[in-house]
Design brief:
By secondary structure, this protein is α/β, with parallel strands linked by helices. It is built from eight helices and seven strands. The longest helix is centred in the middle third of the chain and has 29 residues.
């Protein structure tokens, strides 16, 4: 199926690692030009090179989404590089405290993850949406999480930020729909990768006094499909929602989690 994405332009935050890189490369393979926003320019440059090898234009732009002035400057740089922004994918985010109860979480820890996962997305949309309005439409995809669909003990800060992101997504969908702008959310479950292997698995192994291999199996047992998502699973969902094939879908939470949120 032709997703009708060729020669469109996407802004992607957090594009360098894990699902961010997978999403960037999936869009590049569909012929989408990429403006890649992030803090670690050294990590983004290889993504730029790989995208250009696929025949699309790509540009790395330094941006910390928690700083409003940097976001404003970054989108100004994007507009000087391209005449349009067709797609925005908000990937940049963090996990917050892992293995702490809400009562053990400091005010600073809570505020930091809300600012990154929720306020950061708001800041980027606030700068990009007027560009899309002027052009006659666009697609915005926010990366949420299934802990924002079911509460999760020991992950209060992260869960709160992702619940809030669902509300932000739905409100923007209602406000921007009249301008032909679709706003949706993709909610990954646990995604296999360095963050899962190096942070989550050791914490679960310690909490239940089991091996790390058993901790992975324990996670798999929580999913209807009996397996943990891969980065590419998330990328596949994003490119569909970014495409004209999803023209009539907006305000949706799409879990990509092997069935965890459904159980």
């Amino acid at each position: 199926m032709d997703l009708l994405l060729k020669e469109k332009t996407a802004v992607i935050t957090g594009p360098a690692k894990g699902m961010g890189r997978a999403i960037s490369m999936a869009l590049a393979k569909e012929g989408v030009n990429l403006a890649l926003l992030g803090r670690d320019m050294g990590a983004i440059e290889p993504v730029v090179e790989d995208a250009e090898h696929l025949g699309v234009k790509a540009k790395a732009i330094k941006c910390d989404v928690t700083k409003g002035q940097m976001v404003e400057r970054a989108i100004r740089d994007v507009k000087s590089w391209t005449k349009k922004i067709d797609i925005l994918v908000n990937v940049a985010g963090g996990t917050g405290p892992i293995g702490k109860t809400g009562l053990e979480t400091s005010e600073t820890e809570f505020d930091d993850i809300i600012k990154l996962n929720l306020s950061g997305v708001f800041s980027v949309i606030r700068e990009v949406a007027p560009v899309m309005k002027k052009a006659g439409g666009g697609k915005i995809i926010n990366i949420g999480g299934t802990f924002g669909m079911r509460g999760r003990a020991m992950r209060l800060s992260y869960s709160s930020s992702k619940w809030g992101l669902r509300g932000l997504t739905k409100s923007f969908a209602l406000e921007l729909g009249r301008y032909n702008i679709n706003v949706n959310l993709v909610a990954p479950g646990m995604v296999d990768g360095p963050r899962f292997r190096e942070k989550v698995v050791p914490q679960v192994a310690s909490q239940f006094n089991i091996s790390e291999e058993a901790a992975v199996d324990k996670h798999c047992e929580d999913y209807a499909l009996g397996r943990i998502s891969k980065d590419q699973d998330i990328a596949d969902a994003v490119i569909f929602l970014a495409s004209e094939r999803a023209r009539q879908i907006t305000g949706v939470d799409l879990p990509v989690d092997g069935g965890w949120a459904a159980l």
